[in-house]
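Lab notebook, design round three. We kept the backbone fixed and only want residue identities now. Task for the bench partner: fill in a sequence for the structure below.
Input structure tokens:
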């Protein structure tokens, strides 16, 4: 997998998307402790700063160990507030990318996720020769699947009992966006 622009800071009107590095862990750790972030995803808040640093250091390689996937991750920085809001990511395989995003609750419903994802989608189309972008979202996460629909994604599947976490079964919607 050929990597393109992995160290370039991306910029939108209100945001800087900084390539995620180990050094971001100290800036993001407390932000990512809010339990509301994890209500609809099967992960928990980072157990410690050291654990988050190790994860980000692994992601800094930008490639899976076998080199078949590009791991593209950016810290989302809000210029006006001079503050980090969360992160966006894409796992790129030949022809397809899977995206995800996490923002802290104080930055929800202000258009930041939309703006960051719109920039990410543009980079994926332009630089990675993909034809499809996929996103998976818990069916209970109304804000997230509404964001995907606003971005132009189409729901193509519902997976019942896709996961079991935090004591409950989770169904998922699968969304995709294709080049026109």
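Proposed sequence:
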């Amino acid at each position: 997998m050929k990597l393109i622009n992995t160290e370039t800071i991306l910029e939108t009107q209100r945001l800087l998307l900084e390539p995620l590095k180990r050094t971001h862990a100290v800036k993001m750790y407390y932000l990512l402790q809010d339990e509301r972030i994890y209500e609809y995803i099967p992960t928990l808040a980072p157990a410690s700063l050291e654990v988050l640093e190790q994860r980000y250091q692994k992601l800094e390689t930008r490639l899976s160990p076998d080199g078949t996937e590009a791991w593209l991750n950016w810290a989302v920085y809000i210029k006006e507030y001079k503050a980090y809001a969360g992160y966006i990511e894409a796992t790129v395989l030949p022809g397809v990318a899977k995206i995800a995003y996490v923002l802290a609750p104080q930055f929800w419903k202000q258009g930041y996720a939309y703006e960051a994802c719109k920039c990410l989608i543009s980079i994926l189309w332009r630089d990675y020769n993909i034809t499809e972008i996929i996103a998976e979202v818990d069916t209970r996460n109304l804000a997230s699947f509404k964001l995907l629909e606003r971005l132009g994604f189409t729901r193509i599947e519902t997976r019942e009992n896709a996961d079991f976490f935090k004591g409950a079964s989770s169904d998922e919607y699968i969304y995709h966006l294709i080049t026109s």
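Keep this in mind before ordering anything: The radius of gyration is 16 Å.
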